[in-house]
Amino acid sequence: MNTESIYPTDAIFLGSTRLWFNTVKVFERGKVPIVISAKEIPFEIKSGLSANREKILGFEKKPPLLMGVLNVSPDSFSDGYQARDPSDLLKRINKMVDEGVQIIDIGGESTRPGFTSISFEAEKKRVDQAIRLVGKNFPNLLMSIDTRKASVAEHALSLGVKIWNDVSSLSFDPDSIEIAKKFGSFVCIMHNSGAGKDLHKRIMGKNFLLDIFDYLRERIEFAVSGGISRSRIIIDPGIGFGKTEEQNLAILSNISLFHSLGCPILVGVSRKKFIGRITGENKPEDRLVGSVLAAGELAKQGVQIVRVHDIKETNQVMKMLYKLQAAD
Fold this sequence. Notes:
The chain is α/β, with parallel strands linked by helices. It folds into two domains: 1-52, no CATH class; 55-326, Alpha-Beta Barrel (TIM Barrel), CATH 3.20.20. It contains ten helices and twelve strands. Helix 9 (288-300) runs parallel beside helix 10. It starts with 11 loop residues before the first strand and ends with a helix. The mean pLDDT is 88.
């Protein structure tokens, strides 16, 4: 992807952004990737890549949007939190807003490796307070519910949440598709290795990028066939879920591959374990530099939403990148 103001006549712009390209890398199973001219891209793929995307989730702002993580589960891998005092939780929400968050992603059940599943009632109780606090104090702020359970999503969506962020891609709960359709919510579908505790099962094979691509394409088709508008589908390659360090890096380096699916891309790379392995930081909270660097690289490749813990620092990076891209 390039942002230079002087571009060749065969350049294709990604949506309504300043990002353009005139060559593409082609992946085929069992073959070494090759680079071809953008002129050779099939029309249906080319038109999907260049389609006008003035709004992402209703936002006029140029992407990427910052999705801030608000975990109200005590066993989250990075920032476990058990809300006991509403004033403490509200302080945390206020801080996220002050730092520039545009979407708050509320989760009540950890899905870290080795997680223990909890009941609908327990998960609902955890997220209810946070949703109500955001809705009351910041009624125009977009909220996302991070859950695999249709009943938890239904409760959240009934309270005004607009995005269902489902790490199981609507496969864990048979009622999921109907609940998403009932509320007309945005749905984020993420690549994983299974709907239950095998979310983190290792994926193997030289064609894992294409396996991820095909999985997301199949889940998009499933959602559309179930009555969910394609314009309300978000995709996530699932960094860290069943992937090795090398696979995570390959996904990030080739994230542009997923633009051809025609849906906004969300990536959650913040504080992940593979960043710690590279930087030598064992504690998730010490992986700030690696996390914001990765978020910046994703922005340069046109990713529309980044899911982060360190909102203030990531926001600063995005502002600098935007100014640099706009400079001649």
